[in-house]
TrEMBL record, chains A, B:
Residue stretches making up the HTH lacI-type domain: 2-56
Keyword Ubl conjugation listed: no
Region (Disordered): 325-351
Keywords: DNA-binding, Transcription, Transcription regulation
Bias (Polar residues) ranges: 342-351
SUPFAM superfamilies named in the record: lambda repressor-like DNA-binding domains, Periplasmic binding protein-like I
Name of this chain's protein: LacI family transcriptional regulator
UniProt xrefs under Gene3D superfamilies: 3.40.50.2300, lambda repressor-like DNA-binding domains
Length: 351, 351
DNA sequence: CTGAAAGCGCTTACAG
DNA sequence: CTGAAAGCGCTTACAG
């Protein structure tokens, strides 16, 4: 292994001079600087990360705590991970990915051993067990997902309440008067997935305010249950003309369900989902949707985290809570309600 | 920050004794051991990872180099990542996830700075630019994906040739005599994605051996192109009775395509794909498929990597090349060919 | 502009 | 069974 000592010797200077020449942290004569650089290049020198971390108390690594829960839709997670990882790199940081089931334990491990300079938490729940630990940790943390208590951390999330209102208003403007809402599975709520009820409550309230009949159901996260529950919901409410989807798994399953019933959007049913454009393109989902912006959320969280890391200790800026205003991406799946009500469940019926 | 010095002082012993008591690397009296452990617990001691890495030349971190390529289907990647990350943790390692576009550069960074004890490369291509660097690195590496030259690394992959033969033989046994094959997009091949032609060539050859007419096409990785190309293929070959899918994006798009044409599998068309069971369940893909086993491949790669890391330098065991025998998961989408040929493209026709 | 030295927090031969 | 010391490779005050 080639060390800074080797570089110093090759360049005929002291180790400190070699270090300064490479870092540029104090002025070094042109000539020496060139000799050192040349030696480093020639010997293929890279500073030892552990040694540097020990000396500077900086690892240039951020921790990313992701959880894969049975009742959530895994593919959506990938985009958050990419957003975080790519942004971290752009700031000169590497990413330690932790997928351990026991997130609190994992968080303690990586923070108290100083493996990371800061931490991004994905999939944050209302009373997230990782938060008390994060607040005690010496490193700053940024969250994607809104917890009950935001003290001591920077928080980024979609504004799910505004998203709920936007869905309803969009349908209301098109003159729909009876809507269906499919949320995430009920366990997600029980586990503290606050975004579920933030969206749901907003939808319920706005529907009431607009004089719209609303039938709200919890969905499923897995096939074939998702499809069955969609069928059941459509069967139960044949006069509903619009469908709001808070649930990515339901959105992915909907095209088959519509086909099986001989329905088309927006001709027979107007549909609005809530997922990313990337997701829509990957699975060819033809429904208008509220962009969930996973890459942007990851990027914002990391950028803020890096600011905290690099900002001097004392100058504590107040913590940030940023809820992104929802945007509706129009893919043409909404329109005025049909004149006649849908025919009820016709397996494979003609359109 | 609480250091081993603090523990030593609290327990009234030297730092070395404290270290040994915690690591158990030499015999320490019961009593002292207890005092040290108690002190560590009380003060909440965790060894500093950087300091430990510097002293031991071990980081207990493995690097995971993933690439997200436009012409590949991103959701499939997540399962590899989880397999690697979970297995690493089970062995006591953390995972540094690198998604940088320039994989070779990233590999050099993390290996030469000794951020990791070993490296797993995902998505390995025929003449992978990362391999020469990996061979020069001081850390061992394990690959998921078969490169042209396996020297110096451990390699794990699905046996794509056997998979191709299995697909054809399965259809042949059911008396199909004309088949369609949809591979990955052609750019994947151009880029050196060897698994594409390994599967394709084996299918072509086996079809010839069995006297089967085969129409092989490259697919697309994105909607709506995927769907269009499937339609075009089905239009072009109305007498083909079986469809082989090497391409996950095509598999995800197929249900809509079949619905739109009023076709059902296996009644009108027998279908075999190549993707994981997890993938099938997430997207409710009703097609029999050859299990691509991403979690198992990730697990095997990491387990072997850990063995290399922990094995003493000299005792170089020969490198491993392991190709998993394909397994067909039957989801009931294959059967005997229909008596009458398919009617050609009928948009929304009755079944 | 440059060098000698201390120190980051750990582990592990070396001595007793 | 235990302690004092060296060393891992770096950075950065301290001195000139």
């Amino acid at each position: 292994m080639v060390t800074i000592g080797d570089i110093a010797r090759a360049a005929g200077v002291s180790r400190s001079t070699a270090s300064y020449a490479l870092s540029g942290k104090r002025s070094i004569s042109e000539e020496v600087q060139e000799r050192v650089r040349e030696a480093a290049r020639e010997l293929g020198y890279t500073p030892n990360a552990g040694a540097r971390a020990l000396a500077t108390a900086e690892t240039r690594v951020i921790g990313l705590l992701a959880r894969f829960l049975d009742d959530e839709f895994a593919p959506a997670m990938l985009q958050y991970i990419r957003g975080v990882s790519d942004t971290a790199r752009a700031h000169g940081y590497d990413t330690l990915l932790v997928t351990e089931a026991d997130g609190a334990r994992a968080l303690r491990r990586i923070t108290s051993s100083r493996m990371v300079d800061g931490v991004v938490l994905l999939n944050v729940a209302e009373g997230d067990a990782r938060l008390p630990l994060l607040r005690k940790a010496p490193q700053p943390g940024a969250l994607v997902g809104l917890p009950g208590d935001c003290a001591g951390v920077d928080v980024f999330d979609l504004d799910f309440e505004a998203a709920g209102r936007l869905m309803v208003d969009h349908m209301h403007r098109l003159r729909h008067r009876e809507l269906l809402l499919v949320s995430q599975p009920e366990h997600v709520v029980e586990r503290g997935g606050a975004y579920v009820w933030r969206l749901r409550d907003a939808v319920v309230q706005q529907a009431r305010a607009r004089g719209i009949r609303l039938h709200a159901a919890f969905g499923e996260s897995r096939q074939p249950e998702v499809g069955r529950s969609l069928h059941a919901l459509l069967d139960a409410h044949p006069t509903a003309t619009g469908l709001l989807l808070g649930n990515e798994a339901a959105a992915a399953a909907l095209p088959s369900v519509l086909h099986a019933r001989g329905l088309a959007a927006p001709r027979d049913l107007s549909v609005v989902g809530r997922y990313s454009d990337e997701f829509a393109r990957t699975f060819s989902l033809p429904f208008s949707s509220i962009e969930s912006a996973p890459d942007l959320l990851g990027e914002l969280a990391v950028s803020q985290l890096v600011r905290r890391i690099t900002t001097p200790e004392g100058s504590e800026e107040p913590h940030v809570l940023r809820l992104l205003p929802p945007e509706l991406v129009d893919r043409g799946s909404t329109g005025p309600p049909p004149a006649a009500p849908r025919t009820s469940s016709v397996q494979g019926g003609t359109p």
